[in-house]
Design brief:
Layout (H helix, E strand, L loop, with lengths): L1 H18 L8 E4 L2 H4 L10 E4 L2 H9 L5 E5 H9 L4 E8 L3 E5 L14 E4 L4 H10 L6 E4 L2 H10 L1 E2 L2 E2 L2 E5 L2 H8 L4 E5 H8 L8 E6 L4 H20 L13 H8 L3 H9 L6 E5 L4 H8 L13
Parallel strand pairs: 1-2, 1-3, 6-7, 6-10
Antiparallel strand pairs: 3-12, 4-12, 4-13, 5-10, 5-11, 8-9
Helix pairs in contact: 5-8, 6-7
């Protein structure tokens, strides 16, 4: 028996060493856009990769991909329900949705028959809109993505139809407002959601960490991520740190947003919704948000 235990010991130590990586060495897969901003100091690290197609990130998660997966919380929880070997550790974006007026509505009020453009049919934008405003708006049309929504806000049209209001997200909103100077923000969706939900925040991007990552590496990673996010929120100029050798073009490609627009959004009362909360400390808000999608989350699915 003693000999067998001694033979197993090197194998067990090998397994432990594979999982007990440093928090800086964890591989990360993240969507471009607002969530990627959280990792500004890692943007030129080979361990940090981004993808502009959320479906690709979900696929990686269900196929036992990177150590850390960043994806919208709804999709991440669905993946866990389907057997993805991850748990929700934290959230890093808390809403960047707005309804913008194109500037052609005579009474400046979003009436039931106004032409309204949304993106994300069947996804978070539609669910949140219907939660806040109901389902009896008679002239809603959907576009493929937030970039197409921005085009409608700029042109005031969807095809040949006049558009009065557009459901849109930062940071493309800030750029669109520069091109249509008669447009304006009509509703801050985060404020509307918080008021209706009894004070709960919207929940968007989540950090999901693979079950095989050691507790020490996980804690170190979350601690560093929280510190870096808070430093950026306190000083938006820190967006330039950690990637001094990268060209602006390479940074824009990796993050999906140029540094100047990030600074604009951060200085505009953090309109991009960046932040950090560990999931275990925000369980009620997460649960309430998931109810919009007829989803539940167990505390066993949270670190």
């Amino acid at each position: 028996m003693k000999k067998r235990i001694l033979m197993l010991l090197p194998i067990l130590l090998s397994i432990a060493s594979c999982n007990d990586v440093d928090g800086d060495d964890l591989t990360i897969l993240c969507p471009t856009g607002a969530p990627a901003i959280a990792f500004y100091e890692r943007v030129d690290d080979v361990e940090f990769q981004t993808n502009s197609t959320p479906a690709n990130i979900v696929s990686s998660m269900t196929n036992n991909g990177s150590d850390v997966i960043v994806i919208d919380t709804v999709s991440g929880v669905k993946a866990i329900e389907s057997g993805a070997p991850y748990k929700l550790a934290a959230n890093i974006t808390f809403g960047n949705f707005y309804i913008a007026s194109t500037g052609i509505d005579d009474n400046n009020n979003m009436d039931k028959d106004d032409n309204i453009v949304l993106f994300g049919m069947g996804q978070t934008p539609q669910k949140v809109f219907e939660y806040l405003y109901g389902t009896d708006y008679t002239n809603i049309s959907y576009v493929n993505n937030v970039q197409d929504a921005a085009k409608c806000l700029i042109s005031k049209k969807n095809g040949t139809e006049d558009v009065k209001y557009v459901f849109i997200a930062e940071p493309v909103l800030s750029k669109a407002l520069l091109q249509n100077t008669s447009a304006s923000i009509y509703k801050d969706i985060q404020s509307e959601y918080k008021a209706k939900s009894g004070g709960n925040e919207m929940i968007q991007a989540g950090i999901f960490i693979k079950n095989t990552v050691s507790k020490s590496a996980r804690k170190e990673f979350l601690k560093e991520t929280k510190e870096e996010i808070n430093e950026l929120l306190n000083n938006s100029q820190k967006i330039y740190e950690g990637h001094e050798d990268m060209t602006p073009e390479a940074f824009n490609t990796k993050i999906g947003i140029d540094a100047e627009t990030i600074i604009t959004c951060l200085n505009k009362n953090n309109s991009i919704g960046l932040g950090f909360k560990e999931a275990k400390d925000n369980f009620t808000a997460i649960s309430n948000f998931l109810q919009l999608f007829n989803q539940t989350i167990s505390k066993d699915d949270i670190y």
